[in-house]
Write a structure and sequence with these properties.
By secondary structure, the protein is an alpha/beta fold. The protein contains 15 helices and 13 strands.
Length: 370
Amino acid sequence: MRILYFSRDYTTHDHRFLSALAKTEHKVFYLRLEKRGHTLEDRSLPPEIEQVHWKGGQRPAKFSQGLSLLADLTRVIQRVQPDLVHAGPIQRAAFLVALSGFKPLVSMSWGYDLIQDAKRNSPWRWATRYTLQRSAALVGDSEIIRQLAIQYGMHPEHIVTFPWGVELERYNVATFERSNSQIFTLLSTRGWEPIYGVEVIARAFVRAARQLKENHGPQLNLLMLGNGSQAGMLRRIFQEGGVQEQVHMPGQIGQADLPRYYHMADLYLSASHSDGASISLLEALASGLPALVSDIPGNREWITPGETGWWFPDGDVPALTQAILDAVARRDQLPEMRRRARWLAELRADWNKNFLELDKAYQLALGNTK
């Protein structure tokens, strides 16, 4: 089968999908809609994948380029002659394919497209409905994505849901026990952008670290990976709070180094305001790391309070502060929670198993065009 894989950019998730597709019998072509300002994936495209060069993919895409990109996409489809097009996010790559009239289209939700973008305004809602109504199948990573897709007109039987998962062998657990009871380390791996709630983490960490110091408790440290537009604000919060010596900010970490940081931590933190099945959360679970996460639908599908972690009300700094302090006080419970976290990842987040579900979407799409 000839597949045209059309995505917004080249990210870690794209690399994983394309690497897995490269091992199949399919002939896969890769089309990139835009190239944003910062590097999202440092690994090369798998050699078995043929990248298609066209008018897009060189710079951030603009609405004013829509007609030109649509015309060139039509040319690409005519040249490649794919049996199906796999495209996402919904209102960007998949929308262009829907406008071209090509069938069958397998749309892939990236989470934010249905959770956030579809709610922006009437044109974005229209683009969402237009695309889903012309999709032969939809791939989503969580129940919240499934429910939203149905609300926007996708036929329930045409949706294939599976967590994108992680490569379990990369995140295997070094030990379930922690050796230093006088230091408690938190880990944040999300981008430093408003949607990920990193300001909430920073302010809660300052409060919790101060309180533990005043009460002669364990030293609280924070590993804060990543970068983004809120870097200056985060550093100011830590400096003004007098905790900068307890925060390590190594920047954007390559995929090869990520497991080491998960193994250095006692507890994973995410204050994201919006998520499907967060890959960062699944990486933490695969590493045997309990998670303290915002109480949003995507996180509730993975975290059972007291078993694999805890929730806190989304955006609530005092609540997150108290939840951190409670986790430190309950650190004797963490070894068992670490075992449960790894078990959950093995049960539901194995990328090598979950990827096989993608073929169901392909076969469903081909069947829906007959």
